[in-house]
Specification:
Length: 246
């Protein structure tokens, strides 16, 4: 049985420490594939929520000083309960964000990191051009992705026109894509949440990352055909394709 079917059967709760820009899109992706999204910013309820959650997605998109302790607390709870932690390191190349992620990785085990080429290069102490939330250079450098996986001990998903998924030994490439992904802010966050949802029901986090990334790419190709290159309609069509996936 594919992981998508397990998601539909188990309807896992996916807990999100989300950014405030794209959280509706993130919640929609989780729900459309059969999961149950929940967003929180309350430290007081983290212990209760991690008990019922099957995965934790930390997205640092709209960071502030109060959030690092929340990330650490949630991450430690997830680690203790053996539930997967997915990190979306939005714009980690910027100094403040880099400091926060460095501090976070000292405190918690992150199982999967999903970012664009500029963000992933940061984990390998390399520089790939980027500006804020965007990568400017979509280079396919397998060595960087493998190094990022080895340095962090996490599975790495580098998104772009070609997605790369690495676990420190192997790299898988996914080439199916639509350029309508790029103009839509939040598609990276949606992919991170989809990976979180798949890892919530699969003990094999590498397989979860690969299947989720493949599904997202293939759904984007179908959606682009349906909307005839209209970018605003693309997100709705993408969600419809994710809803219909099996
Ligand atoms: N130039 C591109 N052409 C086609 N697909 C892309 C392109 N850039 C990114 N994607 C796809 O868009 C989604 C978001 O990835 P990306 O833009 O790299 O993340 P982020 O939004 O975090 O910067 C992924 O599914 C990725 O594969
Ligand atoms: C615009 C913006 N600002 C802070 S978070 C965010 C959304 C980032 O989304 P993505 O990384 O998926 O493009
Ligand atoms: Mg991003």
């Amino acid at each position: 049985m594919g992981i998508i079917n397990q998601v539909r059967e188990k309807q896992p709760l996916v807990l999100n420490l989300a950014n405030t820009v794209t959280q509706q899109r993130v919640a929609d992706v989780i729900s459309y594939v059969g999961g149950s999204p929940l967003m929180t910013t309350a430290s007081n309820e983290l212990a209760e929520l991690m008990q019922i959650a099957s995965a934790l997605v930390i997205n640092i998109g709209t960071l502030n000083d109060e959030l690092l302790p929340l990330y650490i607390e949630a991450g430690k709870l997830a680690n203790q309960l053996n539930k997967p932690v997915i990190l979306d390191p939005v714009a980690v190349t910027l100094p403040y964000r880099g400091e926060i992620v460095t501090a976070l990785l000292k405190e918690i085990k992150v199982n999967i990191i999903r970012g664009n080429a500029a963000e992933i290069a940061w984990f390998a102490n390399q520089t790939v051009a980027g500006k804020g939330i965007d990568a400017l250079d979509n280079q396919i450098n397998e060595a960087i992705v493998l190094d990022a996986a080895q340095k962090t001990g996490a599975i790495i998903v580098q998104s772009g026109p070609t997605d790369l998924i690495a676990d420190g030994q192997q790299v898988i490439k996914i080439t199916a894509h639509s350029d309508l992904f790029k103009i839509n802010v939040g598609t990276g966050d949606m992919l991170s949440a989809l990976i979180g949802t798949f890892s919530a029901v699969s003990a094999d986090y590498f397989a979860a990352a690969v299947e989720a990334t493949e599904l997202f790419a293939n759904s984007g190709v179908k959606a682009a055909q349906i909307v005839e290159q209209k970018p605003a309609n693309f997100i709705n069509a993408l969600l419809d394709c994710l809803y219909e996936a099996n």
